[in-house]
Design a protein that fits this description.
The protein is built from 8 helices and 10 strands. The protein is α+β, with helices and mostly antiparallel strands.
Length: 231
């Protein structure tokens, strides 16, 4: 885990423990507290502002942004489910894992060559043991090498950021309301035809390269969402 991510997680922990309830320490105080560079603190604060956790008032400082405390998943960002739900135990069942060539249709979606190798991964994500989502995911193997079932059974985004040292930039999301198929309903423990939110994710590295395309079907009984208007 990078230094700025450690700072991000510690600030979130302090907010949850009510150690930070209003204004954060100054930038110089945070540098002294965490023994890191000014850029590291600024990157951490920038990340937390993008997530809607903090906000700045010019000339006054950085403050905690108080939102509803209902464990909703934040839909603005490009982080994975594990990072998005830090208060819960997220586990993963890998239902499918193989490598394929992109081909004509997928190469257009993933902005790559026809012969680009692509990981296809199908996973069921569980929150505290309860199925919350089915993921149908494609990763560009040239950009995200050495994926395997073991990594897929954990947090792929943690592997990308911490092991491959890649910087995730931004995501485009498309939302659809659908009815569950019989197979999807069985996996999620719902009735066939139940409503579901389906999210298409197109996730880019910080250099603009598209590395991940996903279709995620959420269990409406176990998952809530929120979006925030942040600069």
């Amino acid at each position: 885990m990078s230094k700025y991510q450690e700072v991000v997680e510690d600030i979130i922990h302090k907010i949850e423990k009510n150690e930070y309830t209003d204004k954060l320490p100054t930038e110089d105080q945070l540098i002294e507290q965490y023994q890191v560079s000014r850029n590291t603190i600024r990157n951490a604060i920038r990340t937390l502002k993008k997530q809607g956790t903090l906000f700045s008032i010019q000339g006054s400082g950085v403050f905690v942004r108080h939102t509803r405390d209902d464990d909703s998943l934040w839909m603005n960002g490009s982080c994975g489910i594990t990072e998005n739900a830090p208060r819960h135990k997220i586990t993963t069942d890998v239902k499918g894992f193989h490598i394929m060539m992109a081909g004509e249709e997928l190469s257009k979606r993933m902005q790559c060559e026809l012969t680009t190798p692509i990981y296809y991964i199908e996973r069921v994500r569980k929150m505290d043991g309860v199925p919350m989502a089915i993921e149908y995911t494609y990763y560009n193997k040239d950009l995200v090498p050495s994926l395997d079932r073991r990594i897929a059974s954990q947090s792929i985004y943690s592997y990308i950021k911490n092991d491959l040292k890649l910087s995730i930039g931004f995501a485009d999301k498309y939302f659809h309301v659908k009815q569950l198929s019989a197979q999807e309903a069985s996996i999620l423990g719902l009735e066939e035809g139940s409503p579901a939110l389906e999210v298409e994710d197109y996730v880019h590295l910080s250099n603009g390269q598209l590395f991940n395309v996903s279709r995620i079907v959420y269990n409406y009984k176990t998952t809530n969402f929120y979006a925030s208007n942040v600069d």
